[in-house]
TrEMBL record:
Coiled coil region boundaries: none
Low complexity compositional bias, start-end: 1-8
Complexes and interactors: Homodimer.
Protein task: Binds and transfers iron-sulfur (Fe-S) clusters to target apoproteins. Can hydrolyze ATP.
Keyword Iron-sulfur: yes
Family to which the UniProt record says this protein belongs: Belongs to the Mrp/NBP35 ATP-binding proteins family.
Protein name listed in UniProt: Iron-sulfur cluster carrier protein
GO-annotated molecular function: ATP binding
Keywords recorded for this protein, A-Z: ATP-binding, Hydrolase, Iron, Iron-sulfur, Metal-binding, Nucleotide-binding
Organism for this UniProt entry: Pseudochelatococcus lubricantis
Entry binding sites for ATP: G26, K27, G28, G29, V30, G31, K32, S33
C-alpha cells in the first residue's frame, strides 16, 4: 500500500469508541493532566461513558491522580488488557505496565508501539469519549501521535503567562497541521481567590488564553482557578470534580465539558 493507505490503516478507529479527544499543552507543568482527569470525570457526570488514556509516556500522571499507583491491569484472552476503573472511568496508563525508569529511556518507535497497544489492545468496551492525556510539547513525538491516533478533536490547556501562550499557539498550529479540529483552549491557574479575605489576584496575568483563542478563531472553553483544593484533591487520588462535586471548581470543569 502507498503512504495514503498506510496512513488510513494506522488511523483506523478504535472499535466501540465513538470519539477520541486529546488534551494537550505546549509545555509541561501547566496542569494538562489535572485538566484531563477532571474533564473526563465531568464528562462522565454528564452521562457519557468515558475512558482516559495516559499517553504521557515519560511522565504518566494517571496512577497518582486516581490513587492506582500499585495497580496492574488484568490480562484477558488474547493478551488484551482490561482497563482499570475509578470513579466510573476506564483507565489505562503506561505507568500501570512498566517501570517508570525503563520507559524513560525508550526511543520514539517504542513509545509509539506502547501507545498503539494502549489504544488497540485494551478492552475499552463501548465508550462515548476516550480522553487522551498527551505528552506535553509540540515536538516530533507529539506530532506523530496527533497524526496516528484517530482524534475527533483536541483541547489545549495553557496558563496565562506569555511564554505558556506562545507554546499553546504552537499546539494549535500542530493540530491544524494534521487536520485535527481544535475544540478550544482552557486557561488553567487563571486567577487566585485568597481563602482568608476573598480577594482575587491574577497571579500570572489574566485573559491571555481568551485573547489567543479569539485570535486563532478557536473557542475559549473556560477558566480554572489556581487553588490548593485542586492540587490537594489530585494528590489524594480523588480529583476535585468527584471530591467536591458541588464546589465552584467542579462547576467550572462541568461547564467546559458541556462546551466540548
Ligand atoms: P502537566 O500535566 O501540565 O504537567 P499537572 O496536571 O501534572 O501538569 O499539574 C502540575 C502541578 O500543578 C500538579 O501538582 C497539580 O496538582 C498542580 N495543579 C494543576 N492545576 C492546578 C490548579 N488549577 N490549581 C492548583 N494546582 C494545580
Amino acid at each position: 500500500p502507498g503512504p495514503r493507505a498506510r496512513a488510513a490503516t494506522t488511523k483506523a478507529g478504535v472499535p466501540g469508541v465513538r470519539h477520541i479527544v486529546a488534551v494537550a499543552s505546549g509545555k509541561g507543568g501547566v496542569g494538562k493532566s489535572t485538566t484531563a482527569a477532571n474533564l473526563a470525570l465531568a464528562l462522565a457526570r454528564l452521562g457519557h461513558r468515558v475512558g482516559i488514556l495516559d499517553a504521557d509516556i515519560y511522565g504518566p500522571s494517571l496512577p497518582k491522580l486516581f490513587a492506582l499507583a500499585d495497580s496492574k491491569p488484568e490480562v484477558e484472552e488474547g493478551r488484551i488488557l482490561k482497563p482499570l476503573e475509578a470513579h466510573g472511568l476506564r483507565l489505562m496508563s503506561i505507568g500501570f505496565l512498566v517501570d517508570q525508569e525503563a520507559a524513560m529511556i525508550w526511543r520514539g518507535p517504542m513509545v509509539m508501539s506502547a501507545l498503539q497497544q494502549m489504544l488497540r489492545e485494551v478492552a475499552w468496551g463501548d465508550l462515548d469519549i476516550l480522553v487522551v492525556d498527551m505528552p506535553p510539547g509540540t515536538g516530533d513525538a507529539q506530532l506523530t501521535m496527533a497524526q496516528t491516533v484517530p482524534l475527533s478533536g483536541a483541547v489545549i490547556v495553557s496558563t496565562p503567562q506569555d511564554l505558556a501562550l506562545i507554546d499553546a499557539r504552537r499546539g494549535v498550529t500542530m493540530f491544524e497541521q494534521v487536520a485535527v479540529p481544535v475544540l478550544g483552549i482552557v486557561e488553567n491557574m487563571s486567577y487566585f481567590i485568597c481563602p482568608h479575605c476573598g480577594e482575587r489576584s491574577d497571579i500570572f496575568g489574566h485573559g491571555g488564553a481568551r485573547a489567543e483563542a479569539q485570535r486563532r478563531g478557536v473557542p475559549f472553553l473556560g477558566e480554572i482557578a489556581l487553588d490548593m483544593t485542586i492540587r490537594a484533591t489530585s494528590d489524594s487520588g480523588s480529583p476535585v470534580v468527584v471530591s467536591a462535586p458541588d464546589g465552584p471548581h467542579a462547576q467550572a470543569y462541568l461547564a467546559i465539558a458541556r462546551r466540548i
